[in-house]
């Protein structure tokens, strides 16, 4: 970017005239402000044709997917928001056209050799694009699922921390906590000479430490070298004596090198003795102060030329390098768990489901399977109770800690079992007791049955490694500290606290100079994570546990940290999973990225982000076939003037999502009650979910919403109602499950990973359509069954392309080219199958129909139209029946799943759980979705939604607001009740944003 320059020259009268040259940034701002608005076919577009080409991006003839030959110009180095209905073509323009072309041009600038490793980019269907920069996409693709990947490693903060600890850390002994250091013989001599005059001591050289053997040769060698005495197993012995050591016992032999008294002129002799002792025992020496008592801890003072514990504990740490602190390298990783931090083990919390029960009541869940098993284990436990002196009727929580440990982990004693069998005969026998956990673990390892393995795994959890307590590193590595904290302590701090710790770090001398640059990098990166609303995350958090929105914001923070200039960033809904409170910080971060000199293309539906953009492009007016046009392009403030923009209507208030006039009544008797939820950051809370109403679980990011609903509530309901054995998060119990008959979880995972999967196959409607085609007279004459109309199996499909419709041709050094199959011309079926028609349409024509059209076409068949109507209801009328699954967005996939569940006959006792269903949805789509969800509740079902979108929150009957903050500061219930009640709660962040919204709705009425 041009910088501001001031030139001076002398005028005619000798006056100094100052010329100011405007920066390109100021010039662009001025030109955008005065750009005239032009209306063409109902589209309102700001004319920036007069702006120089190097300050704008120009697209001509974009036709990707449903785009209708779009021409568009947007300013560079500005934040441009693309908005519009779901399926209108925003992503096609932003990702499939702009980003794809920017990426492709950059890759094409590399050599042919480099390109073969990068993979090739398809050229988007566009006439030309001008003014592009190298493009970086920050989307919501899930992060690395590798268990070794953490927030610290993906942001590279952990790499800098390793450097900091390696260069400035103070090593300690993991056993006694004493600082560990290596000393030179000179330092050892100086330390000993600091003792008072007349102090008597002897220099010992430990030649054998705790090793088995007779050591005859060694003792002979010592005698030959002229040594007279040695301390053998703590006893002073004359080496001239005949010494016999037991071969099987461990021995310690310390040779007396010299006996000394502190006085003037001793330095030379002491130095020689110290050097001799170090040479004899390979760098280790002990000063034994003979006048002190044997039991005095100060009697012996160890010294070492290597890193050694002053108290003589054995250490494994030979070097302190950055790799020493890596849990992915053998030098630093905990040997028990290989640096993973956890193992799959039987979790006592799952075995003991409810600690208020006693052993007699069957508190040990896996031992209460059948009558025989219950009786067998009951007798053994009774025998154990007699031996240890506890009662079988005492609640588990009241049993002493050691008794509970013995029951779970066993004991090396024999249990005497005595009982009467069903015929009254007395039976007595003696048996070992290995404990509940060990029994289950042994059976898990021994069984060959997959079913039994799955059964035992339902009592297993990723339990923190016993050796390192889940910290992934060796004890010696964890004993290296900076300012009293180990590297694991720093990684376990939330980002906010970690930043405070780094800022408060006061290093002196060489350490300060060494750590200066490293601390600067750590500070900056932690600061960026804090700015994008991730202050609650810890650096040790596994990457696989992050949500799509969190992962995207981490990448955003990493990009800001890289400080690149002149890049085009394409972002896909960065506000997902973000509470209104944190939205402002995110927008500030985006503005900061823009101010560095980058162009931001943001696909977004969030009102605040749209209003704070420099430029808005609204694609529409509808979705699918009805979209693909630019209905508005210009400054954000003028969007409300666009006649065809639905987005403009919502922002101007001409359209709105209405607040319900009344809330459904909540019944105290009909509810699901989660007792003692304590997974992740939940603080042992009890939560009531009313049945028969729409409940929204909300709260700031990281407050524990997903943990409560997805990790505890859903797995328990799925286990009890659907028979799915999923291990739930830590909790005591859930009451009221008997009032529901099934649970349906609608998440955003793709409906399929191959192009063969599509909405028709996923919803099951394709089977019915194939059956219908098989019943046509033509098909029956030819003897075609439903299988003939499948593009996945031999028979009716085109064998040239195996039913794909396209052929992939691999090109060396060029992108793979997909060409239409010449046999079937992309229709997927062979000629004979396509001769069968229903109402004039072939099976291929039906696959290519938009769902809206297909719903009309099959109206006469309720069994088919019911499926299709539901898809139209949830706002998916624009997608094609055979649209490949990978081309559907997360929001579209979620709605396909929702529609699949909706068309099933409702029993009125179903629980629907949805995780942020408004992802990727426009205001208008949210309105449609709410109509569907309210319809479900009207039938008596229960809908539980995790959501931040205020339009959904205000439409709820009941709100559970978690918080008040994220991470450690969350995990409690801040408020619960109707939206009106939550809006009155002072402590609730959701309430603060909800209050003005409800008041506006009230005033409008």
From TrEMBL:
Residues 667-995 form the ABC transporter domain. The keyword Transferase does not apply. A zinc finger (C4-type) spans 798-824. Keywords: ATP-binding, Cytoplasm, DNA damage, DNA excision, DNA repair, DNA-binding, Excision nuclease, Metal-binding, Nucleotide-binding, Repeat, SOS response, Zinc, Zinc-finger. It is found in: Cytoplasm. GO terms for cellular component: cytoplasm; excinuclease repair complex. It comes from the Bacteria. One of its GO terms (molecular function) is ATP binding. Forms a heterotetramer with UvrB during the search for lesions. PANTHER family: UVRABC SYSTEM PROTEIN A. Belongs to the ABC transporter superfamily. UvrA family. NCBIfam families: PRK00349.1 (NF001503), uvra (TIGR00630). This is UvrABC system protein A. It comes from Bifidobacterium goeldii.
């Amino acid at each position: 970017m041009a910088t501001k320059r001031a030139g001076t020259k002398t005028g005619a009268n000798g006056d100094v005239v100052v010329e100011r040259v405007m920066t390109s940034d100021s010039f662009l701002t001025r030109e955008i402000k005065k750009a005239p608005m032009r209306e063409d076919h109902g589209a309102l577009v700001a004319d920036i044709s007069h702006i120089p080409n190097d300050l704008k991006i120009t697209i001509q003839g974009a036709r990707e997917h449903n785009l209708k030959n779009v021409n568009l110009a947007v300013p560079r180095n500005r934040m441009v928001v693309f908005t519009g209905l779901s399926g209108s073509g925003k992503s096609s323009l932003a990702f499939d056209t702009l980003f794809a072309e920017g990426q492709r041009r950059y890759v094409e600038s590399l050599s042919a050799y480099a390109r073969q490793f990068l993979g090739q980019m398809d050229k988007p269907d566009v006439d030309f694009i001008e003014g592009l920069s190298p493009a970086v996409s920050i989307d919501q693709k899930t992060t690395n699922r590798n268990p070794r990947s953490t927030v610290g490693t993906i942001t590279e903060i952990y790499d800098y921390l390793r450097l900091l600890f390696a260069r400035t850390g103070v090593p300690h002994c993991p056993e006694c906590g004493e600082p560990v250091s290596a000393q030179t013989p000179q330092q050892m001599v100086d330390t000993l000479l600091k003792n008072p005059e007349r102090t008597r001591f002897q220099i010992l050289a430990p030649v054998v430490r705790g090793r088995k053997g007779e050591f005859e040769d060694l003792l002979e060698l010592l005698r030959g070298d002229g040594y007279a005495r040695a301390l053998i197993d703590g006893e002073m012995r004359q080496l001239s004596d005949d010494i016999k050591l037991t071969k099987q016992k461990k021995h310690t032999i310390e040779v007396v090198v010299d006996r000394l008294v502190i006085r003037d002129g001793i330095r030379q002799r002491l130095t020689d003795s110290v050097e001799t002792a170090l040479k004899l025992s390979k760098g280790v020496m002990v000063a034994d102060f003979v006048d002190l008592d044997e039991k005095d801890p100060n009697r012996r003072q160890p010294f070492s030329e290597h890193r050694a514990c002053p108290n003589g504990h054995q250490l494994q740490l030979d070097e302190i390098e950055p790799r020493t602190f890596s849990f992915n390298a053998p030098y630093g990783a905990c040997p028990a768990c290989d640096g993973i931090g956890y193992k799959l083990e039987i979790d006592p919390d799952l075995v003991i489901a409810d600690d208020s029960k006693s052993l007699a009541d069957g508190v040990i869940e896996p031992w209460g399977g059948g009558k025989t098993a219950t009786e067998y284990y009951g007798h053994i436990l009774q025998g154990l109770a007699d031996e240890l002196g506890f009662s079988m009727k005492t609640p588990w929580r009241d049993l002493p800690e050691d008794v509970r440990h013995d029951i779970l982990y066993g004991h090396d004693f024999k249990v005497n079992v005595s009982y009467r069998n069903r015929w009254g005969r007395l039976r007595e026998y003696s048996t070992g007791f290995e404990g509940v956990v060990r029994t289950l673990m042994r059976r898990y390892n021994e069984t060959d049955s997959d079913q039994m393995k799955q059964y035992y795994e339902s009592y297993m959890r990723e339990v923190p490694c016993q050796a390192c307590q889940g910290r992934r590193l060796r004890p010696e590595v964890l004993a290296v500290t900076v300012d009293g904290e180990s590297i694991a302590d720093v990684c376990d701090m939330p980002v906010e606290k970690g930043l405070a710790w780094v800022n408060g770090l006061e290093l002196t001398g060489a350490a300060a100079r060494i750590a200066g640059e490293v601390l600067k990098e750590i500070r900056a990166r932690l600061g960026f994570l804090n700015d994008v609303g991730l202050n609650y995350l810890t650096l040790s958090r596994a990457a696989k546990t992050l949500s799509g929105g969190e992962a995207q914001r981490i990448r955003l923070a990493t990009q800001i940290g890289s400080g690149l200039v002149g890049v085009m960033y394409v972002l896909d809904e960065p506000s997902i999973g973000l509470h209104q409170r944190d939205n402002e910080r995110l927008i500030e971060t985006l503005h900061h990225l823009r101010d560095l000199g980058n162009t931001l293309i943001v696909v977004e539906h969030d009102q605040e982000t749209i209003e704070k953009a420099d430029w808005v492009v609204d694609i529409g007016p509808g979705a699918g076939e009805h979209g693909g046009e630019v209905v508005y392009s210009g400054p954000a403030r003028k969007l409300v003037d666009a006649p065809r923009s639905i987005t403009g209507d919502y922002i101007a208030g001409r359209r709105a999502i209405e607040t319900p006039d009344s809330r459904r009544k909540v019944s105290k008797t009909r509810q699901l009650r989660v007792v003692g939820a304590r997974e992740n950051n939940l603080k042992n809370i009890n939560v009531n979910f009313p049945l028969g109403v729409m409940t929204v679980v909300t709260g700031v990011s990281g407050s524990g919403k997903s943990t409560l609903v997805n990790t505890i509530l859903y797995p328990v309901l799925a286990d009890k109602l659907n028979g799915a054995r999923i291990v739930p998060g830590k909790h005591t119990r859930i009451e009221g499950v008997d009032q529901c008959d099934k649970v349906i979880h609608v998440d955003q995972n793709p409906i399929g990973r191959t192009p063969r999967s599509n909405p028709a196959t996923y919803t099951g409607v394709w089977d019915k359509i194939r059956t219908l085609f098989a019943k046509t007279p033509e098909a029956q004459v030819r003897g075609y069954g439903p299988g003939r109309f499948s593009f996945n199996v031999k028979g009716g499909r085109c064998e040239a392309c195996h039913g794909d419709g396209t052929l992939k041709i691999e090109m060396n050094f060029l992108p793979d080219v997909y060409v239409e199959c010449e046999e079937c011309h992309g229709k997927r079926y062979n000629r004979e199958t396509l001769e069968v028609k229903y109402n004039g349409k072939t099976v291929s024509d039906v696959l290519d129909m938009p769902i809206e059209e297909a719903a009309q076409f099959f109206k006469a068949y309720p069994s088919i139209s019911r499926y299709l109507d539901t898809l139209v209801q949830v706002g998916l009328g624009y997608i094609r029946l055979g649209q490949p699954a990978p081309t559907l967005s997360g929001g579209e996939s979620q709605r396909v799943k929702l529609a699949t569940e909706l068309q099933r006959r409702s029993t009125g006792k179903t629980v629907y759980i949805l995780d942020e269903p408004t992802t990727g949805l426009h205001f208008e789509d949210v309105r449609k979705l709410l109509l569907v969800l309210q319809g479900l509740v009207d039938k008596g079902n229960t809908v539980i939604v995790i959501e931040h979108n205020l339009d959904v929150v205000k439409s709820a009957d009941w709100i559970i607001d978690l918080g008040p903050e994220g991470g450690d500061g969350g995990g409690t219930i801040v408020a619960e009740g109707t939206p009106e009640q939550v809006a009155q709660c002072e402590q609730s962040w959701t309430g603060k944003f909800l209050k003005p919204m409800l008041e506006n709705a009230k005033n409008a009425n």
